[in-house]
Batch of 2 targets.
Target 1
Amino acid sequence: MASAGRGVTAPGNSLGRSRPRYGETAVKVLLLAAALVSIATTVGIVGALIEPTIKFFGEVSVFEFFASTDWAPLFSPPAFGVIPVVTNTLIITLIAILVAVPLGLAAAIYLSEYATARVRKALKPILEVLAGIPTVALGFFALTLVSPFVRSWWPFPMEAKNGLVAGLIVGMMIIPIVASLSEDAMSAVPGGLREGAYALGSSRMIVSLRVVFPAALSGIIAAVILAISRAAGETMIVVIAAGSNPTFTVNPGKEMPTMASFIAQAGSGDLPVGSIAYDTIFAVGSLLFALTFAMNFISARFVRRFREVYE
Amino acid sequence: MSSQPHVTIHQPEVPRNLAALDPVFTVQGLDVFYGDYKAVRDVDLTIGRKEITAMIGPSGCGKSTVLRCFNRMNDLIPGARIDGKILYHDEDLYGDHVDPIEVRRRIGMVFQKPNPFPKSIYDNIAYGPRVNGHKRGDLDSVVERALTQAALWDEVKDKLKASALSLSGGQQQRLCIARAIAVQPEVILMDEPCSALDPIATTKIEDLMQELAKDYTIVIVTHNMQQAARVSDRTAFFTAEVDEAGVRHGRLVEFDETNRIFTNPADKRTEDYITGRFG
Ligand SMILES: Nc1ncnc2c1ncn2[C@@H]1O[C@H](COP(=O)(O)OP(=O)(O)O)[C@@H](O)[C@H]1O
Ligand SMILES: [Mg+2]
């Protein structure tokens, strides 16, 4: 059957396929199915979000949702200004990135350019294990150990659950993502470029920062984008360490529930299906999805414009 | 192949006085190790100032290994080390006080595969001066001078901001030569600089080498005997030999004026190699 179109009518010494390769076809179908599952999941998520979101905006005006700074969807009377949880998400993500990018990149440069092969072989798996620590454990670590410590140093009033500590620990969580993927990108830079740079009298630091780093930039930015997405969507650490009382503030010493932590907290309560509070969860979910998607899209274009292509 | 070496012998218009060899490098009893493996054994060699010295020999005989000792490039390979001595002028190149980074500023290198940075043509040339603390002011003229010396200026002067990777292979290699020149080294080491290039690009690089030899000391590794014959003043012939313990080491067989190596070699192995009976 597979050979029907190939004209393998000539016997024996034909170059045509001698027998159909069913195994290969089966593998191809399986791989395609696997690829389709992830696409189908994405489509399914969007589909599931759309309907309740539309219903939500039937009852709450778009203007109130995006322009009001009062967020209390589960109280009565309810308030649906989403701005505080959006800004909280941005602030916690920003704190996390400020922690993770310098530390993660330093680790990546060390592993890729300074460490001997043996040290690298020992350290990289440890880094990847770090990425596997359950975030619920990190959340309690934040609340019980880090928060009291930070509060004792912080010069301003600080609540026990606060955005700063949550942001710091989310940052810790994403260090392995930044470090590991950036290290991959830097290790992939051809050795010839390094040799060329060393041969011009560059120190190791100069080679790392002026040749390897720019050449690996597109991969590094991809790593940072992935880390940002993970930070913006991080739930458990924020639920445990950032509290649930949303005020519109930029003070990270306050409680700072985010979009994701709101979804988790509201979703784990017993809201009646179809109620406006229930639909709020989906509206916030849609917004989080859209923001993450937009960020990925914009940064992908940004990367294409600024990367240094080495062949 | 015929038994006669059908190679053209390079005749400089004004023959340099090769008798008066003014040493830049003096290699004495050099062994080079990769870990426990002695890749090169007991090499004695002198590189003359503003001459072109060619290193030829079959693949794996240690030509690159020796070349990369001259700018301490082998320091970057874990486990690589040397025994013996290399003098740069009168200074021990491997002395305790010597900074390999400073060495590489004085002794430039061009590689087999052109390796321009994925930056603009301008930034490639400016890289060396910049990392060596060159003041911003006259960088443009440094770039122009280096590109002119590398016979590339006319081809690229209108697209200095274009990516170096948009150039052809031969242009990329001349760019790499210009990049090396821009830090004003005394010596330029070249490791098979033409082996990835077509014949026309190769001719351009060979002409360029002749031109550069007026100002620079050049050491070139090549597996192409004709090229060694065409461009070099002196030739070092290496080969790999198996010692009593059965281990292969690179050895220097013969070192002499190129002219003599190709017309009247002293060693039978050299003669066999250049006449194509071996290698
Ligand atoms: N980085 C290295 N590690 C271990 N052995 C090496 C390394 N580089 C070269 N060698 C060995 O040293 C010998 C000489 O190599 P090389 O100098 O590259 O020869 P050539 O340039 O003459 O072809 C070869 O046997 C090669 O396998
Ligand atoms: Mg070689």
Target 2
Amino acid sequence: MIGARFRFTRPETLEEALDLLAGAGGLGRVIGGGSVLVPALVAGQDAPALVVDIGRLGLGSVREEDSDVVIGAAATYATLLASEVVRRRLPLLAAMLREVTGGPGLWNLATPGGAACYANPASDVPGCLVALGAAFRLASRRGERLVAAENFFRGAFETERSPDEMLTALVLPAPEPGRHAYYKLKHAASSWPIVTASCLSIDGRIRLCLGAAAPVPLLLDWPTPSTTEAVAAMAEQVQAAIATEWTDELAGPGYRRAVVPAVAARAIRAVLEERTS
Amino acid sequence: MSEAVTLRCNVNGSDVDREVDARLLLVEFVRDVLGLKATRVGCHTGDCGACTLLLDGAVVKSCLVLALSAEERAVVTIEGSNNLAEIQAAFVAENGFQCGYCTTGMILTAAELLRKSPHPSDMEIRHALVGNLCRCTGYDAIIAAIHRAAERRGAVGYAVGSRQ
Ligand SMILES: Cc1cc2nc3c(=O)[nH]c(=O)nc-3n(C[C@H](O)[C@H](O)[C@H](O)COP(=O)(O)OP(=O)(O)OC[C@H]3O[C@@H](n4cnc5c(N)ncnc54)[C@H](O)[C@@H]3O)c2cc1C
Ligand code: FES
Ligand code: FES
């Protein structure tokens, strides 16, 4: 059983949830799938006063809104993997989702929204959301705001979200899908990512976002290259763009920096050669 | 702070109404409060899958779920699952277990896979089992058992559900 006591609520309205969070100061936690928060509570790494379960707030759906796809914060990996809208309009997101490990017992629970709020650099989700130009809808008693993914991820395990704010949705612009590739380097099938690369071809340009290489996703953009030398040069530029390398128990100092050019080049080539992953 | 709170849910087809502490995990609720011991704890971190059960009809790792999150929802453990006999027989026939600790999670996960994909490929089976660890068998026998269960079922579909 979890050691430290806390108050648990599973409110039925967003207003109630936001009031509770506002009242908890910095000691309120939102629980999505719980796959990060619950083990942290069990291990005594986090000791909130209040846990707010968003399971009854009706935030679990995927909707098309004009040119955007709006994904509710409580939508699970399984919901998105089964979504025809995601498959059709966000094939890069679908490719990323297929690469998440943990098995159905995790996919049926955990949410990309939770992964984004956790902001672990070594996750599949942040880099892909930055590549897709996602925006984060944050709600609090002070009002609602939309934060672009590039501004949302502020550092390792650090986001723009304040403790009284709840992520209610991910808003993804979904123009006519172009060529895309999701490539990740990891040590074993069940391992978390060492480096991820989300690559898109948009309007004659190549957009590449690297995840896990640095504390926050790294976004680069070029005109479509026409030679293999040009791709190699792009891959070198990606490496040079890493100001601070991310290191953790999966990969120590120098490892990620060393593998980045190969990962970047593979993703770019996959897009140029029209191989989709 | 946290006092005992009432938890109302349905477990294996019966309505349950208990006072629980907010700190209780769903796996602890089924094992320690309700005495349903087939659901196991192997890691408490979401990695092993020994705690797999069904929540609203989908397999979940119940060490990642607070018991109170099951309020007004349907929980099914392997004790309350029907239509598993063929999968269980296939695990026996193929020696798909040794100590048996992982087996309930393996069987419930296999059942969900076969429900969605009646004739899975090797890769599909491996993908579905990526979150279920077995320290005994080396997995080959488990994969063979799931293939065998799929063949035995033939064209006959089946569902996972609670015994009413
Ligand atoms: C076995 C296993 C395998 C995994 N494999 C992968 C993998 O391959 N790739 C990967 O990227 N990750 C992986 N993960 C990590 C992680 O569990 C997931 O990325 C997951 O999506 C987290 O989401 P959740 O809904 O469970 O988060 P929760 O645990 O519910 O929340 C995580 C954090 O975000 C906050 N939060 C959640 N929702 C909101 C909200 N709506 N508003 C405000 N704050 C919120 C919580 O307070 C908490 O701090 C794995 C985890 C496990 C256990
Ligand atoms: S005990 Fe839940 S996954 Fe290991
Ligand atoms: S049979 Fe022993 S852990 Fe799988």
